[in-house]
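Methods: example folding runs. The two proteins below were folded one after another, and each record is reproduced exactly as written to the output file, sequence line first and structure-token line second.
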Amino acid sequence: MIAATGSERPAHNPLHAILLCFPIALFTSALISDIAYLRTAEMQWSNFSAWLIVGALVFGGVAGLWAIVQLVLAWRTPQRLATLIYVVALALAWLCGLINAFKHSQDAWSSVGTLGLTLSVLSTLFVLVAGWFAYSAAPVRGIAR
């Protein structure tokens, strides 16, 4: 087996990785549907965005709680900084998503204006940064022979 190097990255549970995949996909899909609404003016795209954002908030909240517990457990380890950055990026994505959910609860004309699109972009960028930071340097594991 190949030994994992670089102990400064957080060690995540595979279930946590699955939970994090949902906000990444849902926030990104909400951004795409906001852009589709701005291009077509079909109100259903705004509805899709609202539903996708709520789904991202649910799964992002569970992943965020798990990440906070992980931060507490890793507080006295070398992974503290990496886990802290991951938790902050995930929290910022969730906060932008929450504000965006309230913005999308308005009618379609006012929900996906400059503020709604900006919040969608920010929540997507923050959750992508969280996912990248958490899993881009995952330990390399060899296959047992």
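Second run, written to the same file directly after the first:
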Amino acid sequence: MITELKESEFYKCRGLLNDHGQLEARAIVEGVNPGRVFVDDMESPASGLIWLGNNDGFIFIGNERNDVFNTGLNHFIDTVIAPEANKVGLNWFEGIGNHPQWNTTIEKVFAYRRLGSWNQRVYTLQKDDYKAANKPAFDEKYKVVQISEIFYDKQIKNMDFLHAKMAEYGASAESFFQRGTGYCVVHQNKIVSVCFSGFVVEQFHCVDIETLEEHRGKKLAQLAANAFVENCLNHSFVPYWDCMASNKPSIAVAENIGFKNVFNYIGYEFKFDV
């Protein structure tokens, strides 16, 4: 039987986490970012499923050969996850394994569901690898501004864009200013590019980066990312970049700054049967 843990019980899953797995899983188990955790055993879990608080997917943790957990997954997803996902407008289940051994299990358990997949790449940046010389020049009409408490409350035309981006991670503004860091590129009193800490665990800061479509191609993402990276390195933080392998522009920005690919993983998807 698969049961949901209370947030105060997430600590029971610490031993199930892969030390070299996705930062998001640890951020939720440690209570830094919101999420939900479902396990095979309330007292001594061996396997689990993490639902990211921004509804951006699921992470399988622990023992991938746990028959009790695995045989109950499809029923649990159909009767518990799918109806709740439907309420928030989610039509697809997107799942990944916290370690590579989960891939075979996921492919086997969900084989009948017309399972699709994609490749994901994870990068980190160490101080000695930072390519500061590659920082682009930019038009003076664009300003790089740190996301501070003062800036957060300013009368920017589209401040709701930043508020919505940060809300995806469920942390309050107060929590962000305690743990995270970030920068915006502003043009004519409008945020046109943003780079900030999404998930934060210990010294690792997971990058969330986006440039408005009409301003792409001007290296604004590089500007925001360089400012973010410099701030992280000055505070002994480790920038962490997770993106789809097919997202060539994102990879180009990361590698231009000096990020190194540290591991890759596979994501799987199928449509909910509701």
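Comment on the second run: DSSP finds nine helices and twelve strands in the chain.
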